[in-house]
Amino acid sequence: MTNPFMLPPTGFGPGSQPLDQQDEALEYMPLPQDMRTYSPRIPEIEDLGGADLSPALTLMAQVAGAAQEVSVQGGTRQFDLAGLDAANRVLTAETMGSGEVSAKVRAIPAIAVQESVFAGIWTLKSASSDMIEVAAIPSCITRAPFAPVRQALGKDAPLAGGVVNAPPLQIELADKSAAFTPDAELHVINLSLLPHTEEDLVWLDQAVGEGAVTILSRGYGNCRVTATAMPHVWRVQFFNSQDTLILDTFEVTTIPEVACAAPEDLSDSANRLVNVLEAIR
User: Fold this and answer.
1) Structure pTM?
2) Which CATH class is domain 51-143+262-280?
């Protein structure tokens, strides 16, 4: 015989009581939204007034071939769009589209970087140039990312009340920055797992400064990658789909992997771009 005291009580809990009129609509927590996925878009050539579009088609075929080469050999390939007329530029822009990753390079001139819908194929625009670059990451991003837009004050950053754990972290970053070599292992400081105060974060921001490159990757949530003014030190922050910071790190590396296209991505982009070009023709 089952002991009645072992059974859960009845008449309690959600669903056990009649709903008031204001409670009739159940409220659920919002689900993650806006995850971006690839969907091919085939531009309509007829919309371009019957112009000769062979220059754009030839150039994009070369871009597809370069993507396949870079996926195997590495490196970078650049294609200048200056020689294309307006109709060919429109076709190229519509075919490339806008992908998940964009970047701002505060150089002279400033460069706006936008990944196309084909991973590893980037469009680069500045006051003096308009081009496509095929690479894991555009060369303009790695050329001088730590050129200071805001100087790194280092240990001379003014201490305020509430700064507790930041100075040892700055010393660790400065040490890893000074000892960095291209073949060095990735070094990560995960602020999300370390005790710190808001004043610690403000002090660290002043200590590391700000470099010339900011990268934003939009996918299932956002990832913001910011170069500091300390060589080889990047701030990498992940936000969920509700724009809440869920991971906050410093990485000491040449370029964080989250911003780069993998060789498999480039190979897949080459194949997809060829398929799109065949559909256009």
Assistant:
1) 0.81
2) alpha beta
State the pLDDT at residue 51.
80
Does domain 154-254 bear CATH number 3.30.1370.140? yes
In the chain, ranges of CATH 3.30.1370.140 domains: 51-143+262-280, 154-254
User: Which residues make Cβ contacts (< 8 Å) with residue 258, sequence separation at least 6?
Assistant: 217, 223, 225, 236
Average of per-residue pLDDT across 272-278: 94
169-187 residue pLDDT tens: 999 999 999 999 989 999 9
- pLDDT of residue 22 exceeding 60: no
38 vs 122, more confident: 122
pLDDT of residue 235: 98
- Residues ≥6 apart with Cβ < 8 Å to 231: 146, 177, 180
- Provide the token pair at 74: 């590495």
| Largest Cα–Cα separation, the chain | 89
